[in-house]
Amino acid sequence: MKIHVVVNKRAGTVLDWESGPLQQEILAAFRAQGHEVTLHLISPDDLVPTIDRALEQGCQALIIGGGDGTVRTGAIKLMGTDVPLGILPLGTLNRLARDLKIPLEVHAAAAALANARVEAIDVGEVNGRIFLNNSLLGLTVIYSQYRQAVRGRPIMERMRGYGTAVKEILKSRRRMDVDIDHGQSRMRVRVLSMAVSNNRYQENASLMLQKETLSDGVLAAYISQHPSGWALARAIVRAMLGRFKSDPNIVHIEAREIDVSARRSRLRLSNDGELDIVEMPLRYKIRPRALKVLVPVTESPADAQRSNDAVLARS
To answer: How far apart are CA 8 and CA 91, in angstroms?
Structure first.
């Protein structure tokens, strides 16, 4: 198979790596399975042109190395094509990679993708902008703002930025009134934060929320009505323990389309961790099986969960 691997050299993990050994590990993994592989180590500005050239050259699978935002860019280019997307999880959170049960160690991920199957997954959309994991509005967008501001800076500076974001979130009591229409009913709620997820989260104990499937054709909205950032933080801890649905301050909605309106002309969203300023109202919808992806065949979901939790604990 003719494979192009496109690695964002500013991704969270790559920033702390020597690029030479990383490239050799990736190339060796794919060549060991008989693939013809070309690797591109590029800056973010070169991402889209590099993907375009790879498609023009007839690549049969595109592997994106980077974080969730980089993966999202690759997905935008591949939606509606027969070229599957593979993920080398080189970012900070690597949410889609976790949901696809891709190992988080780069050499293991490359080996798994070199011997993978193709599946079609759903894609979320809000006002024409796609998301693969979730779209956030409200208080938790603050974290994405700080994260984007310190991207590419030395690790200690990044950690200080993350700490500042967490402190600002915890002390906040800023809520807003929104109207939500999901086809079956319309409601007005005072929202601290809201997450619209591409398919539903599992209610099981995990350091990071997981999804059983990405192909049920449903959006799942989790609406926080907590009075403060501290209360929301406690809810997140309960979610890690597998108890978020029992929280009386979380409204849970599932639908194929969800409309959100408020007394604002625009709203800042975090789509897969990337900031977008979007005109109101927000019109969310699910695009069933719109993207082909590479999924490992060599690791059971239970093994992948244990491996991914271990990597998260070390990071």
So the answer is: 9
C-alpha distances in Å from residue 24, one per residue of 28, 68, 111, 290: 6, 23, 13, 32
Predicted confidence (pLDDT) per residue in 104-130, tens digit: 998 899 999 999 999 999 999 999 999
CATH number at residue 27: 3.40.50.10330
Buried b (16+ CB within 10 A) or exposed e, 51-75: beebeeeebebbbbbbbbbbbbbbb
Q: Are 126 and 278 in contact (CB under 8 A)?
A: yes
Q: DSSP labels for 141-178? A: HHHHHHHHHHTTS-HHHHHHHHHHHHHHHHH----EEE
Torsion angle of alpha carbons 185, 186, 187, 193, nearest 10°? 100
Among 73-77, 143-147, 180-184, 275-279, the least confident range: 143-147
Rounded to whole angstroms, what are the CA distances from 64 to 50, 137, 198, 278?
Answer: 11, 26, 20, 26
Based on the fold, state whether residues 269 and 307 are members of the same structural domain. no
Q: What is the pTM of this model?
A: 0.85
Domain shared by 188 and 252, yes or no: yes
Q: Which run of H or E residues covers position 293?
A: strand 282-296
Is 191 inside a domain boundary? yes
Sorted by sequence, the CB contacts under 8 Å of residue 2 that are 6+ apart come out as: 35, 36, 57, 58, 59, 60, 61
Q: Which domain holds residue 30?
A: 2-115+297-314
**Total domains in the fold of the chain:** 2
123 falls within a domain:
no
For residue 253, the domain's CATH number is 2.60.200.40
Q: Specify the 3-state DSSP secondary structure of 135.
A: strand
Higher pLDDT, residue 77 or 69: 77
